[in-house]
Amino acid sequence: MKKLFLFALFAALCCSCTESNTDENTDPNGGSNSGQTTPPDPDSDAKDVIHVPKGGMLAGILNELGLTEPSSLKLSGTLGVSDFTTLRNIQSLEHLDISRVNLSVLPTEAFLECTNIKSVILPNTLTAIGTQAFCGSSLVSISIPAGVKTIGNGTFNLCTALQTVTFEKGSQLKAFENSSGWGGVFQSCTSLTTIEIPASVETIGYNAFYGCTSLQTVTFEKGSQLKTIKGNAFANCTALTSIEIPASVETIERGAFSGCTSLQTVTFEKGTQLKTFDGFQSCRSLTTIEIPASVETIKYSAFNGCTSLKTVTFEKGSELKTIEGYYQFYGAFSDCTSLTSIEIPASVETIGICAFSDCTSLTSIEIPASVETIEWYAFSYCTSLKTVTFEKGSKLKMIQYNTFRDCTSLTTIEIPASVETIERGAFSGCTSLQTVTFEKGSQLKTIEGDWSWGGAFSNCTALTTVDMSACTQVTRIEFRAFYEDSKLQLFKIGTRTPPSCGDDVFTGINSYSVLKVPAGCVDAYKNAYGWKEFTTISELDE
Question: Which domains does the chain have, with CATH numbers?
């Protein structure tokens, strides 16, 4: 009799669709679900489906049916926000099927920290999944309906048991977004091994797959419309070994693949539109990279700390303009300790701060004529760098401070005619540098120095010859410019009026050093401050 009573009660509940419940019969996204009380699908285990005619009724129905500790549930009808609270509180619930529920938006925090639920079947009416909907749950697998266009911040964040994510064919999803600080959509899903990104996705947001340490394979559905991979999107995916970037991608942001320590291969789909290159810092297994011709900017941290990177090539027809830097020891290729050579494209105009600093295996570099700016520390501490050449017709105006600092293997340098200023510390500590010459027609006006960084050529302890005979416009040589250059034997200068000298410009030079100056200018140099350090001053040979 009791079973008969319960059945009659449940039938009555299912027929009570005309009763109103404005608060609990409201779609969590703000739309009304009134009138959407579709009965259970008669073709699919109807006898196991519990129909909820109105939002807010689930708890009462389960109680009347005696389902206090169910391990699985199949629901139909309408669910309100409070019904999801009811579901979260059922500690025994492992499997939930809400595919028959009329639902367009899965509410925010719907299954937040549900450590018991392992699977949820979502309705195909769904268009959005709310913020943190499954965050911290024990979900093992999930299939995202094709109609879902939005997945909120942190939706699957910290789902450490999640192994499989599939997107139904024809997915309309536009972005894996993260804009509010709630974590990436799949951040720290440490059991996730593979993911295929639907073709419809245009943006992979911040931290989307950050810390997915078991993620081995990332593929993109054919016809991908992806435009942007945002910062830290795949950061610290330490099991990822290769990635092919779709042709549609225009921007890879800072840190997108940083810390992917197993990443060996990065390729780009033919016809790539990539303009801005970034995001592979500390990828310590990456050995080679070809930069697509479309790239105009390599950002300041693109390959920073890629300690196994040996070869960097540029696709024919490169449009590269800028190799960026940001701050001391933080440049595009800084700390790439295995990089032995790189051919900078003829299109490059700027080599940024610390761009190649601490590339300790780099042996030679040719600076194209197109380069107008080399910023500070650009090649500093490249301890194996023996040869630096500037292409004829160089447009370079300034060698900034500490550009080649402590390049201890550099033996000779010819400064282009276009250079007007060599800043403090530019070649300081280049202890193997023997010869410095200036190209015919030199526009040099100033060689700098100061207390902080020393002189432009200070502590070049192997320097024997400085040939500035082509320099006819020099007006100033500043503090300690050639300080402690103890082996200096010959210094030539073509400026008729002795340039003003700061303190200690030549302090510590060899007592046998010879200064050669233009004809008729010997006495002027003998009487000029700073130039008296030379015991022998004579005229230049014709």
Answer: 1-103 (no CATH), 108-113+127-272 (3.80.10.10), 287-389 (3.80.10.10), 397-542 (3.80.10.10)
